[in-house]
């Protein structure tokens, strides 16, 4: 058991080292920090870069917490099985002693009959208690593996079809709720120190994921995705102008351009007038029809006051005209 715990600690250290190396390499590939003299400079990153790094840091903490819970529940499951075997052996010894006419210690008999839990385990001393305790640990282990896979985003199609709340179209709130439920299920029993720390860590990360889900909602996973970062980097159009997000305006213009009919195609097909006649949102222009429609809706079109420029000729009462000096 000690060697297994040492192996788990070594695995966690390797995971932390790999995650640190991955984030450093990712930041260096996006924004290189070395100048022409091969010296390091401090470069201010855009706000979305800090969001990207922060959300991936939360993802890293989530993966580490789930890995610790996975390992600690395996340890707890092994300890429970060993405690059940000891309890069964003691019970068998008690039955043999009773059949032989010998008596056991009164304290041992009292402990075996009145304990709510099997000594040294999380298994309740009740009918089918061993089955439900083992099933509980197996379900927690399976859920931990499933959540780790969802954090890596693999396989994404499987999660999008069968577990949409863990897919790419949902935020991190559901993930945080599941992590809090797993942590509360573990902390509701008396466990060893390793399992206790792992469960507390997972519950804390779950609360953090719930907070992140409330802040960024459904866009959290797209903001932390490496592929979406690369697609955003390839885009030649700006996303912010003078601190204002122009993506909604650009998307509306793009959709309007996509929905507009092609002039060349209508020239050859002659479907321009037919489409205008069938359209319920066609305008009435600036002629008499438009003025009549505006009048029916209560809009009044005022004519501008007639005026002549300063250099125009004025007509006298006698009908002669004279030039006006400028």
- The tally of helices reads 13
Order of strands across the main sheet? 1-2
Summarize the helix and strand pattern as letters.
HHHHHHHHHEEHHHHEE
Q: N- to C-terminal separation?
A: 106 Å
Query: What is the total tally of β strands?
Result: 4
Report the mean per-residue pLDDT as an integer. 75
- The computed structural class is mainly alpha
Task: Give an overview in words.
By secondary structure, the chain is mostly helical. The chain is 65% helix and 2% strand. It contains 13 helices and four strands. It has helices at residues 2-30, 47-100, 106-114, 129-152, 156-162, 173-187, 193-216, 220-224, 226-234, 247-259, 263-269, 272-278, 288-296, and strands at residues 240-241, 244-245, 314-315, 321-322. The strands form two sheets. The chain has a two-stranded antiparallel ribbon. Helix 1 packs antiparallel against helix 2, helix 2 runs antiparallel to helix 4 and helix 2 packs antiparallel against helix 7. It is elongated, with a radius of gyration of 37 Å. The model has no long low-confidence stretch (mean pLDDT 75).
């Amino acid at each position: 058991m000690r060697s297994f715990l040492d192996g788990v600690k070594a695995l966690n250290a390797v995971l932390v080292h790999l995650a640190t190396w991955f984030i450093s390499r990712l930041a260096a590939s996006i924004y290189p920090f070395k100048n022409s003299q091969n010296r390091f400079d401090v470069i201010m990153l855009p706000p979305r870069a800090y969001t990207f790094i922060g959300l991936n840091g939360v993802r890293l903490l989530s993966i580490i917490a789930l890995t610790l819970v996975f390992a600690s529940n395996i340890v707890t499951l092994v300890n429970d099985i060993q405690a059940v075997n000891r309890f069964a052996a003691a019970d068998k010894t008690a039955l043999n002693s009773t059949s032989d006419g010998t008596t056991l210690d009164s304290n041992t008999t009292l402990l075996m009959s009145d304990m709510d839990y099997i000594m040294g385990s999380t298994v309740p001393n009740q009918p089918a208690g061993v089955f439900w305790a083992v099933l509980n640990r197996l379900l927690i282990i399976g859920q931990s593996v499933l959540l780790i896979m969802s954090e890596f985003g693999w396989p994404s199609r499987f999660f999008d079809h069968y577990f949409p709340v863990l897919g790419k179209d949902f935020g991190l709130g559901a993930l945080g709720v599941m992590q809090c439920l797993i942590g509360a299920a573990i902390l509701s029993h008396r466990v060893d120190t390793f399992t206790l720390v792992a469960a507390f860590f997972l519950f804390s990360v779950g609360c953090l994921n719930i907070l992140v889900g409330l802040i960024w909602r459904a866009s959290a996973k797209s903001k932390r995705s490496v592929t979406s970062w690369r697609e955003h980097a390839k885009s030649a159009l700006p996303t912010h102008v003078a601190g204002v997000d122009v993506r909604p305006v650009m998307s509306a213009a793009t959709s309007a351009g996509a929905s507009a009919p092609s002039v060349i195609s209508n020239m050859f097909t002659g479907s321009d007038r037919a489409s205008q006649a069938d359209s319920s949102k066609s305008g009435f222009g600036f002629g008499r029809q438009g003025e009549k429609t505006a009048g029916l809706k209560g809009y009044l079109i005022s004519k501008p006051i007639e005026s002549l420029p300063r250099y125009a000729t004025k007509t006298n009462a006698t009908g002669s005209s004279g030039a006006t000096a400028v």
